[in-house]
Write a structure and sequence with these properties.
heterodimer; A: 229 residues; alpha/beta; Rossmann fold; six-stranded mixed beta sheet; four-stranded antiparallel beta sheet; 7 helices; 10 strands; globular; B: 394 residues; alpha+beta; Barwin-like endoglucanases; 2 domains; eleven-stranded mixed beta sheet; two-stranded antiparallel ribbon; 14 helices; 13 strands
Chain lengths: 229, 394
């Protein structure tokens, strides 16, 4: 086992049950995992196996029924909701399958959404956003309303937003779900590049183009809410 | 501060992104605000006008009751009343009502002695056109604006009125100015002699006695002494009239306000429906904000700003609309409801009177419940699982 300081993401007995009428449905049961800092892991499994729930729990978006989540050595499971929100704002960059962009706002406005409650983006945030837009090939689209962007452009925008806060951990939910082969290859190159910069990445996927890529550092497999390997 | 401004700017954008919802709520709020404000503005403006009128009334009005009804009073009492300490002037007045079947109502006939106390009246202040009846002249009349309009008369025209068993021809020599229409709209002003003949008030008697006091606050004391001097007298205190007007307008304004309550309730139901029926787009937006790290309190503050802005726009529009409706258009439809005890309504311009208190009342009644209501569904949505909100499963 690695030392606590070397583990970026740790889950201990993580369980999530949802009430379904009078009965309960277990979405995730007793999951224990450790993702070392600076590595790139995937979570595979069929639809409904609990991948997205696992990511939601790791990001502090969902409160676990049992178990704990530690990010960078800090337990976030017992934090108040407002403190978990700050974890999402500063410590974890999350990329959602649905991109989580607000229609009617431009791409740039969406990128700076996490900064609004702090008084809006400062000059350093804008400079960093410009640099990332350039790196992701999105500079020309910064002022475009997000509903006019393609799925590939939205996906890159969502990753860009996750990186903007300089979070050391990136959680990605089905990042290639709506991309063509060319964009998948570009995205994987991008993610590997981020790993090489020292970030920890965990991506859920059941896309064989991603599963079969040899550049991952580790793979977790979920089936029926339980970790099978 | 920077933080709050950023949230307010975001809220402004949110309002623009949901233009349909914003517009519907703003218009509904403006409509309800306008209705309530119009009643408040009109009530207050009328109350002010009538207070001005009451200020011109005598401190005490002495009438004699005969069989429980006002009868004529002997002018001789005036001398006895004038001797009471604190009484500065006693003026016998001759006035009464004349029923016009075509009008299905009365107009007021007033006699004035232009050689007596009424000689001080400045015609330029009260007359819009023509002149007052000449001293000692008979057969001359000044008409209120509404009465002249109803009879289709203007200066120089003549009117035949029944006097005793016969009739008398009166020439219209003047018309009252519209600014004094509140007191003169239905008035037919004649010389004292003509009024006595027309109303059949014999010499030595009067309709009532107008009493002026050096200290109006001691009206009750003076009224007690007058009651001892004039058995069977009814003494009307001006301060009592003042309170009566207040009560009248409070009651009428209150009734109108109460009638508008269903409109307010309907609006709140609409607002509740629009706000609790948080659409999938709005729910998803809350999910996005939660997902990117907004706290519940920050989302609620943004919603508070958004609905405060809608409330401010709506209330502002409503207040402006009510101001225009009451003070520029003259509150057609509503004015008659609040004033209506005469068949001839005075046509006068209401002096604009908007107080901070009125704006506060409107704000409390309309904007505060609206903004408070809006926070409930937003809070409800923020307590949901953000993942579910994003995916549209909660």
């Amino acid at each position: 086992m690695k030392a606590t300081s070397d583990i970026a993401i740790r889950a201990l007995g993580l369980t999530k049950r949802y009430a379904s009428g009078r009965s309960e449905r277990t979405a995730l049961r007793e999951v224990n995992l450790e993702i070392p800092a600076g590595e790139f892991w995937t979570v595979n499994g069929p639809s409904g196996s609990g991948k997205t729930t696992l990511l939601g729990l790791l990001a502090g978006m969902i409160a676990p029924t049992a178990g704990e989540v530690h990010l960078g050595g800090r337990c976030i499971s017992h934090l108040r909701d407002s403190h978990r929100a700050l974890v999402r704002r500063h410590a974890v960059g999350m990329v959602f399958q649905e991109f989580a962009m607000i229609p009617g706002m431009t791409l740039e406005e969406n990128l700076h959404l996490p900064r609004v409650p702090e008084g809006g983006p400062r000059r350093a945030d804008r400079d960093r956003a410009r640099a990332l837009l350039d790196r992701f090939g999105l500079t020309a689209l910064a002022g475009t309303r997000v509903e006019r962007l393609s799925a590939g452009e939205l996906q890159r925008g969502a990753i860009l937003r996750a990186l903007l806060g300089d979070a050391p951990i990136l959680l990605l939910d089905e990042p290639t779900a709506s991309l063509d082969a060319e964009n998948v290859a570009r995205l994987l190159d991008l993610l590997v590049g981020l790993r090489n910069e020292g970030r920890t990445l965990l991506a859920t996927t059941h896309d064989p183009r991603v599963v079969n890529d040899p550049r991952w550092d580790g793979v977790l497999r979920l089936a029926d809410g339980a970790l099978v390997s | 501060m920077r933080r709050h401004l950023a949230l307010a700017r975001f809220a402004l954008g949110s309002g623009g992104r949901r233009a349909g919802r914003t517009l519907t709520l703003t218009l509904a709020l403006a409509l309800v605000t306008a209705a309530f404000s119009a009643v408040l503005f009109l009530t207050e403006a009328l109350r002010r006008e009538y207070r001005l009128g009451v200020g011109l009334l005598p401190d005490l009005t002495v009438q004699r009751l005969v069989a429980g009804r006002p009868g004529l009073i002997a002018e001789a009492h005036a001398r006895a009343i004038a001797a009471i300490r604190g009484v500065t002037r006693v003026e016998p007045r001759v006035w009464g009502y004349y029923f016009v079947p075509a009008l299905a109502g009365n107009f007021t006939v007033v006699g004035a002695d232009f050689a007596g106390p009424s000689a001080g009246v400045n015609p330029g202040v009260v007359l819009g056109e023509g002149r007052l009846p000449g001293r000692g002249a008979t057969g001359e009349a000044v008409l209120g604006e509404a009465l002249a309009g109803f009879l289709g008369l203007s200066v120089g025209d003549a009117i035949e009125l029944p006097v005793g068993n016969g009739s008398q021809r009166f020439e219209v020599v003047g018309l009252f100015r519209s600014s004094v229409a509140l007191w003169s709209a239905d008035v037919l002003l004649l010389s004292l002699e003509d009024a006595r003949r027309f109303l059949q008030v014999p010499e030595g008697e009067a309709t009532d006695l107008a009493v002026r006091l050096s200290t109006p606050d001691e009206a009750t004391v003076a009224a007690g002494k007058i009651a001892e001097l004039v058995p069977g007298a009814r003494i009307v205190d001006r301060q009592l009239l003042d309170r009566t007007y207040d009560l009248t307008f409070d009651t009428r304004g209150g009734l109108m306000g109460a009638m508008l309550l269903p409109a307010l309730a309907a609006f709140l139901v609409l607002a509740w429906d629009r706000l609790t029926g948080v659409g999938p787009g709005e729910r998803r937006e809350i999910g996005v904000l939660r997902a990117v790290g907004w706290k519940t309190s920050e989302i609620l503050e943004a919603r508070l700003w958004e609905n405060l802005l809608i409330g401010a726009y709506g209330a502002g529009l409503g207040l402006l609309g009510a101001y225009g409706y009451v003070f520029l258009l003259g509150a057609p439809g509503l004015r008659e409801v609040l004033m209506g005890w005469s068949s001839l309504y005075p046509a006068f311009d209401l002096a604009p009177a908007v107080t901070a208190g009125q704006v506060l009342v409107v704000g409390t009644l309309v904007v505060v419940p609206f903004v408070t209501l809006s926070l409930v569904p937003a809070w409800h949505a923020t307590t949901r699982d953000p993942h579910g909100l994003l995916r549209g499963t909660t």
